[in-house]
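Hello Y.,

Per our agreement to keep a running log of every chain we model this quarter, I'm adding this entry. I've kept the format consistent with earlier entries: sequence first, then predicted structure.
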Amino acid sequence: MKCICLSPLFSKTGKLIFSKKGTINSSVCEDGSFKQGAYRQNEETRSPISRRPYTYGGKTSEVVVNTHQKDKRSEDLIRDTIKRNNILKNLESLEINIIVGAMYSKKYDKNTFIINEGEIGNYMYVSGEGEFEVLKQGKFVRSFGPGLVFGEFAIIYDKPRNASIRASTDALAWVLDSRVYKQIMRQRSSNKVAYLRGVALLERLSDQSLAEMADLLSVKYYDAGDRIVEEGTQGDAFYIISGGSVRVTKRNPGSSAELEVGVLEAGSYFGELALLGHERRQATVTALPPGVECLVLAREPFQRLLGGIEGLKSKTYPTVDPLPETPREAAEGRAQVRLQNLRRVGVLGGGAFGRVDLVQDRASRSTYALKRLSKHLVVSQRLQTFVYNEKHVMLACASCPFVPRLYETYKDSKYIYFLMEPCLGGDVITLLQERRRFEDHVARFITGCVVEAIDFLHNKGIVYRDLKPENLLLDSRGYIKMADFGFAKRIGTSGKTWTMVGTTEYFAPEIVLNKGHNRAVDYWTLGILIFELLDGRTPFAAPDPMDVCSRILTGIDAVGFPAHVSPRARSLVRQLCRRVPAERLGYQGRGVADIRQHGWFQALRWDALRRKDITSPIVRRVKSNTDMKYFQAYDPNEEAALDETSGWDEDF
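Predicted structure for the entry above:
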């Protein structure tokens, strides 16, 4: 599988662990949940991925969302088709309406290929007229007519098409550019904050507080004639009209008749006093034809998760220091190491962009992990930002005992290099495969180390975004070091980003739908990690990436937990994997303290863990600083890298 990310070469195993397509036996439980049989991990759903920025003429393109006129029959066809799709049906109704408007028609002559197997897809389609056929490796698979979404994975990330689609008759399809889809999601998020900014009651709140409130907004649709709120009843929610209009009426004293007070349209709001307390509604609000969509903020979760308006007014958001630019000299008392003084002991791992060697300083005899990346390949995939992110994040984590140290960076005409602390105990995924699953106390120790690393990153305003056993290394004492920071990003303590990165089986719902994400994605992935450590598989695993994404959107409550996972562990996973990011344990009022104080961690002494005073339950004995027995043989033969001298790596 073609990958455009950096992480494969960070693997310390020296081989492709997941070399075969996964297989899964699925059944439906009596409660409607799905239950999975033995699952062999799948390279296609375990490989880290990212979406590259789209460029025209070498510059990142600005995307404009245009509305393309179409008749009602076509609009209804597109809308109904989207609502039947397992992924797209999870979008809000107004988002679907905007997508319907943004799709444009394209005609295809008979035998014209619309999608070619193996190419990177940038467009999603809805079949409109005519007949289409699916071909795989040139062989006919099936045919379909109007009313089917195809190519939709293109709106999630850059993935080669797994089949070809050809028009078997003269045909018409409705087309959506994936850049337009992403822009629609961005605008919807920005609009929610803008709506809140216009509410007088909230005018003194910071942009950060409004962004947190926006994450709690749910979308509700009301048919014409529905009474959204009724005069005299106790209010428990605040409403912003995002589409349509409503009529406001009040009772006429001494009469059963109601007097119309006015009409509110999109952008208006009502019921804001419900955020302050149990106020009775002062008027009745009724949806007007053809219906109205509202953004709704319920008082109970607003109070519980964010402390209400007063809590947000008094909340302070810590400032984060700038990320360091250059490695520190004499790290841990070591003299500066020169690249030419290093000799290779062996190869720890490799990937599409280069490899990781165990090297030894000829003078001090100290050993290091030396990662080298082909500059030409990095530039050709436009991944310079990811490389710099990794450098800056690792430098910022120099004082974290649960992250490998970065000692030096180098460059020459072909490669850039990272000189790092070696972790000769191997990686957690290899150990997990050997044992099939971990006992509670082992999983708890591993997770505790990860929690400390994530907390350190979040306090620096950094979101990690690629948590999985492959990226967890063991040092000589059996402690966990969280590695591979190519996908980490500085977004601040309350920021949001739309960069599409991660590993499919660990995607959070907001990543699948491209709605923007913040540090809450790391709490979701923490829940997925705990499940995998305890059961040897992830909760949403499936052979096909699209099926994985569909199951993620179905939610953790549809997952059947195996009997050997304790009730406390189940509770923790479910609290971490909440569909709404603001409801996840760790993102709420007390932050990571809520995770540490969960009952599953009762036996873990956190202070002792930070001091490394706990004996690890997974110590893997290392005889010397050149012992590579936990790394499988790897063929270091590779094509010579091309020169790259544009100067983008000046700061390495």
